[in-house]
Amino acid sequence: MCGGYPAVAHVIRLTDVVDPAVRAAIVDPLVAFNAEKTGRNDFRPLILTLTDADGRVVGGLWGRTAYDWLFVELLVVPEGMRGQGIGTELMRHAEREALVRGCRNAWLDTFEFQARGFYERLGYSCFAELADYPPGFSLFLMKKVLAPG
Fold first, then answer.
1. DSSP H or E segment with residue 80
2. 61-104, pLDDT tens digit by residue?
3. Which CATH homologous superfamily contains domain 42-145?
4. Cys-Cys link to 63, which of 40, 72, 92, 131 (CB 3.0-4.6 A)?
5. Nearest Cα to 101, choosing from 136, 73, 65?
6. For residue 6, how many other CB atoms are within 10 A of its CB?
7. 81 DSSP assignment
């Protein structure tokens, strides 16, 4: 016994295989803890698909809303479709939906070799930098106020 508590047997395993059941077993207690502490459990996916003329998904936006924030996890516009305002359209659509959901702010991250300037033109500002990730580059964390207050 350590510190008055009985020892609990455990095994730690390493894998690189994605198993949704394992993820749920890890995430569910954390979500419950967060909900207990914040009084909220308002996580909601926000997904916009971009399809080609044949109806195939070729890009889009993958994010979520929670705690009055929009988080943009992924934004992809195929190279041949860039420069036509599609990325801006996807971001504006996501921001409008986030406002409908009660969000006041948005955040995202982008690598130095990706789209920092694009996001700055949309009103995002850098609030943190993780240097040398990947080596020789930086990762920027960016945010934007969607609505006052």
1. none
2. 999 999 999 999 999 999 999 999 999 999 999 999 999 999 99
3. Gcn5-related N-acetyltransferase (GNAT) (3.40.630.30)
4. 72
5. 65
6. 7
7. G
Query: Tokens standing for 32?
Result: 């419950």
For residue 89, count CB atoms less than 10 angstroms from its CB and return exposed for 0-12, middle for 13-18, buried for 19 or more: middle
Locus of tokens 């070729």? 58
Residue 105 dihedral angles phi and psi, to the nearest 5°? -145, 165
CB 95 within 8 A of CB 106: yes
Residue 17 burial (C-beta neighbours within 10 Å; 0-12, 13-18, 19+)? exposed
- 49: tokens are 């698909």
For residue 148, what are the contacts with CB-CB under 8 A and spacing of at least 6? 104
Give dist(CA 66, CA 132) in Å, integer.
29
Residue 94 to residue 62: CA distance in whole angstroms:
9
